[in-house]
Amino acid sequence: MRRYGKNPDEDDIRVRPNRKGNRPRTHIRPKHEDAAEGMVLTVDRGRLTVLVDDRIVMAMKARELGRKAAVVGDRVAVVGDLSGKKDTLARIVRIAERSSVLRRTADDDDPYERVVVANADQLAIVTALADPEPRPRLIDRCVVAAYDGGLEPILVLTKSDLASADKLLETYAALDIPYVVTSREEFTDGAELARVHELLDGKVTAFVGHSGVGKTTLVNALVPEERRRTTGHVNAVTGRGRHTTTSALALPLEGSDGWVIDTPGVRSFGLNHVDPSRVILAFPDLEPGTAECPRGCSHDEKDCALDAWVAEGHADPSRLYSLRRLLATRERREGD
User: Fold this and answer.
1) pTM to 2 decimal places
2) Please, which of 3, 75, 106, 206 could form a disulfide with 261 given CB 3.0 to 4.6 Å?
3) 20: DSSP letter
């Protein structure tokens, strides 16, 4: 049993001398009131690239942060050498509260969630209309993750010269998600790029999509000074492209104060971390109707009050269908 507290004041307390001659450990952490504010642009094996004012600074996480990790998009406080010169290293001592968080798990059975991006305003879901074929279930999962994390989803449909976008847009019409349709031929003339740019202007937008849909090509066009190697080809058997982005990267949007965050191509988007009760918050026309739902209602059962709410004319039936489709996507695999 411990005999004395942390701050004993009795005269008979014996304090062992510090043989190493250094200062004893303390529970008081430094405030770092002079720390500079920055934004995390990349994370690579414990080294973080941070934008501080107009300088790119290499930094590492301070030990006092413990297990708390910084991700791309985080607003952080940095101390140390902030010159941005070669071979200098600063320390991240604080991570600001996040306004939004995009998370995913490897699959629906994986309990370990991964934070992909922090503080993004929008999630641009990039999908090719052909070559490779669109995967609506993966789109649904990205939409659910966006709603759950506090991001607004937008659809960017590419390769419209190979297939029509009408059928896919009809599927998501009730969700009222902003969208833009692009083609490979017309994208180079600037008109379609301008429409994409308009959706992103002044906002932080994370881009997500599986390999081969043209996501990195689109990002390169939006940020021409940061050209990167694009996908060389799409596998004719699997329909999958080669991964060209290996880690998330924040880039300044050309001619705007907005930011584009390119993320690695995904082949699955697990939703084990998603609380189904949060998805309804993205449907303000339906949310009041849940007041009469039984406790723990999944909103897809016989006693759900939303059926009566819609029957009384408070919301469009297609909206309830869309809600239930998104809620059910946690039980389905992307390829189903």
Assistant:
1) 0.79
2) 206
3) T
Joined together, the tokens standing for residue 248 give 């998330």
Residue 257 CB neighbour total at 10 angstroms: 10
Phi, psi of 214 (to 5 degrees): 95, 20
Q: How many Cβ atoms are within 10 Å of 332's Cβ, its own excluded?
A: 13
DSSP letters spanning 146-196: HHHHT-EEEEEEE-TTTS-SHHHHHHTGGGT--EEE--TTGGGGSHHHHHH
Q: Which helix (H) or strand (E) holds 198?
A: helix 191-200
Parallel, antiparallel, or unpaired for β 75-80 and 36-44? antiparallel
* Residue 237 amino acid letter: V
Length of the chain: 336
- DSSP structure string for 256-308: SS-EEEE----S--B-TT--HHHHGGG-TTTGGGGGGSPTT--SSSTT-THHH
**Neighbour count for residue 294 (Cβ, 10 Å):** 10
Task: Tell me the CA distances in angstroms from 214 to 145, 150, 180, 230, one per residue in order.
Answer: 21, 25, 14, 8
120 pLDDT band (50/70/90 cuts)? very high
Q: What percent of the chain has pLDDT over 90?
A: 42
Closest CA to 259 of 204, 218, 216, 209: 204
pLDDT tens, position by position, 265-295? 776 777 877 777 778 888 888 999 999 999 8
Q: In sequence order, what are the residues at sequence separation of 6 or more whose Cβ sits closer than 8 angstroms to the Cβ of residue 161?
A: 183, 184, 185, 186
Say which residue the tokens 């599986």 belong to: 210
Residues 121/224, Cβ–Cβ less than 8 Å: no
Reading the block at residue 177, the tokens are: 């998600």
Q: Rounded distance, CA 133 to CA 239, Å?
A: 8
CA–CA distance from 77 to each of 90, 99, 153, 191, 294 (Å)? 10, 16, 29, 40, 45
**Cα(241)–Cα(212) distance, integer angstroms:** 4
Between CA 52 and CA 185, with CA 197 as vertex, the angle to 5 degrees is 130
